[in-house]
Amino acid sequence: MLVADPRTAAAWRLFRQEFADAGPERRREMLRTRANQSRTADLRMIGRAKLGHVGGDMSVLDILTTLFFGVLRVDPEKPEWADRDRFVLSKGHTAGALYATLAAAGFFPEAELDTFAGPLSALNGHPNRVKVPGVETNTGPLGHGLPVSVGMAVAARLSGSSRHVYVVLGDGELQEGSNWEAAMTAGHRGLANLTAVVDRNRLQQGARTEETNTLDPLDDKFRAFGWDVLEVDGHDHLALFEALTSPRGSRPTCVIANTTKGRGVSFMEDRVEWHHKVPSAEQIVTATAELAR
Fold it and tell me: How far is Cα 109 from Cα 87, in angstroms, rounded to an integer?
């Protein structure tokens, strides 16, 4: 198991305090800058490893950054704290985005990113809870993260804990039936301590989601299963923050975050081939320059 980087964790705590004290526009800029730094780290990591899922990493990073740097009650130096919020990345193939975020928060040294997908590395192509602090459950096979999160939310209720469970889903994985069994159970049980965020970039491996298996009207489907639904721009950090911290009712919440695959890199945006295409060294230089603007 990797261990925390105390210096980076201390910087993360200072960020969280400054964020809590800041006004809206400062908060927006803080999260935007942090997310693009993680995008740059992710690009370099995938470039070194010669594998990864860069398009989905780029689309989900604003969500992950908002959660870890603005919302989640966690402690990078105490990853087993019993009353911490739980976070599950159901779309486990975007592990690179999660690793970049966890390293930036101090869950483990950022130098570990250089080992991504290497021999004996803890940072596998899909997240592993026995190797990486901050990972609550192993994911990769799609359709498992939401069912596990429902179980976590039920456990929190039974134990009288105030912890909240957040799960990020890919939109393509909602074609898996296990998600809808879990959604039905969460609605039936009124799991108000559960929030699902859908990374709605409308692309999956090889095609658009609506060409593969129509998902819309996605909001109405979740409502029909007993969920409250919010729909936001998934790259608007303030809109994400407000949706993720809005007062809860008596039902689980689904946040549909409309995103763009490959966000922030002009030649990747909304291009299906970047689901798992690896950028060349020259493309990484160009992408990094775009993200620094």
Answer: 20
